[in-house]
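Researcher: Let's walk through a ligand-bound prediction step by step. First, I give you the protein sequence. Second, the SMILES string for adenosine-5'-triphosphate. Third, you return the three-dimensional complex as structure tokens. Ready?
Model: Ready.
Researcher: Here are steps one and two:
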Amino acid sequence: MTIAEQERVRPEVTGATVLEATGVTMRFGGLLAVNDVNLTVREGEIVGLIGPNGAGKTTFFNCLTGLYKPTSGQVRFAGLPRKPAKAIRPKKGQTVEAVPVPPLEPLSPLPPKPRAVVRAGMARTFQNIRLFANMTALENVMVGRYCRTSAGALTSVLRGPKFHREEEATRARAQELLDFVGLGRSAEHLARNMPYGDQRRLEIARALATDPKLILLDEPTAGMNPQETRQASDLIFKIRDSGLAVVVIEHDMRFIFNLCDRVLCLVQGEALIEGTPEEVQSDPRVIEAYIGTGEDEEDDVDVQDAHVQDTTVADEEGRS
Ligand SMILES: Nc1ncnc2c1ncn2[C@@H]1O[C@H](COP(=O)(O)OP(=O)(O)OP(=O)(O)O)[C@@H](O)[C@H]1O
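Model: Step three, the predicted complex:
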């Protein structure tokens, strides 16, 4: 039995709030890409973000992660520090999981620097793979880890004992994360030579290397075959079980409805419905939104049939 099948009965999520978006609106000139959208994400929760093409999912994601400053509204994140370098570093002997969730702090109206957001405990992956193609898998993950190390430029140039100690710790943690995502044996493989599904998992390992409280995944299964999709689903459950909050954008409805505790459906920049997967997939407006876009019938079938099917997609389906 896969983890996906075991998790059908969703545990009640009682964790602290790690992210709160209120009235987020984003305009590009005359185009209202996101209109007054709210979202709360708790520790240990998987939240799905769905909607037809152009619904505003990525734009909303970019507002959540501080990449865009919303035209109006506010995003607050538990852990965004006023002094990024020190705020959520664990004390000696304290594991990362044991660090209490700090109070919510606004991401806006002052847009934070991306590095500050990462240090505060928010990590993301992108729709298109953005690995360092000519670096090994291990090196890619080590790069993600550097936001948690303290060696400055001078220490790195001089390569003294402190540098070597930190480098060893970084290497060990990177290997641990590769093991966690199932790529332990590929540590020395060049990223560009790895199979597509492994590259996606490597991106997740690199994001996890920043010790996030919240990880946002933008279409993590895009282009994956059915087996890779199942593995991605199991990996996301594993991440959730380690105490993180997860937000996922995905077009694969079966994947989303089997994975998530809650789903927010955006249509033309507005929140159409937010609820449990069961509530969302049975809402006729959601089905209509997909049909109404003129997207192919597969999407329609996906929404309606997702409740009777597993994340297992028929093996004959190829990569999209
Ligand atoms: N930087 C930008 N400048 C101008 N318009 C933009 C920009 N980014 C997105 N848009 C527009 O905002 C709307 C929402 O786009 P967005 O990419 O957020 O949708 P999406 O739901 O993520 O779509 P998809 O599922 O196709 O990735 C679209 O009409 C898009 O053309």
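Researcher: And what stands out?
Model: The chain has two domains: 3-121+211-308, 133-210. Residues 1-7, 81-90, 293-301, 306-320 have pLDDT under 50 and may be disordered.
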